[in-house]
Specification:
By secondary structure, the chain is mainly α. The protein is built from 21 helices and no strands. The longest helix has 35 residues. This is TRAP transporter large permease protein. It is a multi-pass membrane protein. Pfam families: DctM.
Length: 439
């Protein structure tokens, strides 16, 4: 049996393992180990595993993962999410759909200091959803806008998916962060345009009464109180992103400074008891170890694929098929979106990128632009059935059994369509993703 055929069989077996419920990291390691064993010998397979474990995460750069996760955890417990929503709610209180716009704006700001979509979905389900329902918005729209806008957390930097892509593609994480700024802002603006369009053209789709709800009851807020609430958030964003983009901090140093700043905010607000601190540290450990273990598994998987010669063979095959770069890109994005219906975001990137990156490079595609498109396509999977991680996160955080999973998926559908449109725009205009990163 040829090495190439073994490689294709390994991918099929690995996908079967994942669908049957095996952890993605275990599936990657087991199939890679067995495939190398079949191609060469058990000794070489054992050395492959050892080399992947030794080489994959020993670099100083990988400290960025636990540090940004720690910053996000401190931000979540400090009450910054609620304050951000309160400020946007007050600023947009006179507009139709104002609470929906406030949720998008607060999610965008929250994304700039956490980088984890699941954290955004969990926080704003508890903060924004009850407020919107209380002010006359339909439950379906209320949960839809929370789940839909939570995906901004994986695009607006700092982003965990951008870090993972940078590691796999061997691309600068700092440049990947820069590349996510305009696409993230574009997506947030498109979400706002969608909400305004629904509020003015089809109010029955978002208001339970079929017409515009009264202005939100936030007139007790003042410019002074809003500034006091927003100031710590602004300082943290400027400290982390400003230091990173000015070149004063490396990504790892920015993560450390951000974690320290978020810790100081939590302490200053008296939101961090010893029990909460322990929970934050243990949760950071769980998330970080999970991500780093996946990176180790992906390293072994990539080496196995290279040994089989599969990336080169697929590149040659696609070139001979005459699809061209645009045909390849369209097929790739469709596959990623389809995989998002059954597999989580990180798993999709770990499985697909080692195969498609050599093809993208063969077509002369910019890896930063390709990375932005990948993250957007992967994020669509957070909102699509049956997997929809953000949807299930919203459901688990809700204290309202009358709102079903089906309601949440239906509420996110308009936001999925907007994301597909934004994916098309970013594909047609690569400069939106690359010009800031290449400065």
């Amino acid at each position: 049996m040829s090495d190439l055929l073994l490689g294709f069989m390994a991918i099929g077996v690995m996908l079967a393992f994942i669908i049957l419920g095996m952890h993605i990291g275990i599936a990657l390691i087991v199939t890679s180990f067995v495939t190398v064993w079949a191609m060469r010998s058990p000794e070489i397979a054992a050395r492959f595993v050892g080399a992947a474990a030794n080489d994959a995460i020993r670099d100083y750069l990988f400290g960025v993962v636990p540090l940004f996760v720690l910053m996000g955890m401190f931000v979540s417990v400090s009450g910054v999410g609620r304050d951000t929503f309160d400020v946007f709610q007050w600023l947009l209180r006179r507009l139709r759909g104002g609470l929906g716009l406030a949720t998008v704006g607060a999610n965008a700001v929250f994304a700039a200091i956490t980088g984890i979509s699941i954290a955004s979905a969990s926080v704003f389900t508890k903060v924004a959803t009850p407020e919107m329902i209380r002010h006359g918005y339909t439950p379906r729209f209320s949960v839809g806008v929370v789940a839909g806008s939570s995906v901004l957390g994986m695009l607006i930097p700092p982003s965990l998916l951008m870090i993972i892509y940078g590691v796999i593609a061997e691309e600068s994480i700092g440049r990947m962060f820069l590349a996510g700024i305009f696409p993230g802002l574009l997506l947030a603006l498109l979400f706002c345009a969608l909400i305004l369009g629904l509020a003015y053209l089809r109010p029955a789709s978002i208001y339970a009464s079929g017409h515009a709800a009264p202005a939100a009851e936030q007139d007790t807020e003042t410019w002074r109180s809003a500034t006091v609430k927003f100031f710590p958030i602004l300082v943290l964003i400027v400290l982390v992103l400003g230091g990173l983009y000015s070149g004063f901090f490396t990504p790892t140093e920015a993560g450390a400074v951000g974690a320290a700043g978020a810790f100081a905010i939590a302490i200053a607000r008296r939101r961090l008891s010893w029990r909460k601190l322990w929970n934050v540290l243990t949760e950071t450990g769980y998330v970080s170890v999970s991500v780093l273990f996946l990176i180790v598994a992906a390293s072994l998987y990539s080496r196995m694929l290279a040994l089989t010669g599969m990336p080169a063979a697929i590149t040659t095959g696609i070139t001979e098929m005459g699809l061209g770069p645009w045909g390849f890109l369209a097929a790739y994005l469709l596959i990623v979106i389809a995989l998002g219906c059954i597999i989580d975001s990180v798993s999709i990137m770990l499985i697909m990128l080692p195969i498609v990156l050599p093809i993208a490079e063969a077509f002369g595609m910019d890896k930063i632009w390709f990375g932005v498109l990948t993250v957007v396509a992967v994020e669509i999977g957070l909102l699509t059935p049956p997997f929809g991680v953000s949807v299930y996160t919203v459901k688990s955080a809700l204290n309202n059994p009358s709102i079903t999973i089906r309601d949440i998926f239906a509420g996110t559908l308009p936001f999925v369509l907007v994301m597909v449109f934004s994916l098309f725009v970013l594909a047609v205009f690569p400069g939106l993703s690359t010009w800031l990163a290449r400065m």
